[in-house]
Fold this protein.
Amino acid sequence: MKSIINIQENINSLIYDCYNALSPEAKRTVLSEYWSDKKFLETYLTFDNSIHFNTDEGVELYTKASDMYPYSKLIGIVELHNLIAKNTVDNFENCVGVDFLGGSGQVERVITKFTNKKYNGFITGDISIKQILKGIQKGCQVVPCDISNPVTIKDKSLDWALIAYGFHHIAPELRLKSLINAYNKLKPEGMLVLHDGFVGGSTVDIMSKIVDRYSYEPHSHPFLTIEDFDYICDYFYDNYQADVQRKSIFDPQIFFGDSIEELKINFSNYMKSHYYLNLLENEIFDCFLDVFSEYSMKENDINLSKYLRFEEENLTDSSKRLVMNDKGRFIYSSNLYVGPCPSIIREAYHEILNLTENTFCIIVPRFAHVVMIKKTMRCSHVS
């Protein structure tokens, strides 16, 4: 009985808090008859898990880690913001969009903090009631939304849609359906942005060799391959006549501190919580060192070095500036970096953090593949 009471209390709180958190622009986009229906929400939402974890503890620790270092993924998130902003019809401030796998609103909070602007049309969607309520508490516009069945969002109402930092958690048989669902929410000239790592790349190396070996909850589904990304691009071009672009972005996790020892402790605590690791804190840093030692060795294998080159293909200008010069990659973009914070990284963070020459950092170099699918005026579905 206690769990039923808690569920009802959470739903009542969600309905009330959702309504009060939404701007007029967001309210015009969301179908309130769904997210105000208690019986519907009981089956639509998850109460002890999320898209990332199947247990209550995993969700709690993941959220805790995001709070510990909310700006660890700032560079990648800002890159996504810039790609969306450059490709939307209207000024981004006037646009309405949904971050469909948004959790407690980390992407929304980072963009708001970095630009020092409040975006009334920025909506975060998630199916975890705990993530939704946490995001609302932090000032975000979070609404119940399952990307595989996004009935809470009106069709043809969005200027942009983002699926990032979690597409690999969606079952393979639901992935294309989820992309089509998000695409159908776009207005003409709207932009769908898909972001994820790929098999053979740095992000998946970390996930498969750390998370899948040592997490209490290894990944349930395989990551996308390069061929999977090819198929998605061809599908939307062939069936919807959409304009499709592909980019690579530098998407590191970065941690700052006043000393190396302090950094290693904070880094290990974050990783243990973020990935729900069954490791002792003093084991985690060495595990990451081993993983990146293997990653850097790909340069010496002709069959594996192609994945390094794929990461470098079509880098955005800002990512390329951060990653490499004419001589190749910088040390912090090719291996786990621990040391004084490079000036170019301090510059990337100067809008929100006061970093100095005495600041130390740990940089986990990760790259993500980004597919931008624009709904053109000529778009039509070919069945």
About this structure: The radius of gyration is 20 Å. The longest strand covers residues 186-196. Residues 2-21 form the longest helix (20 residues).
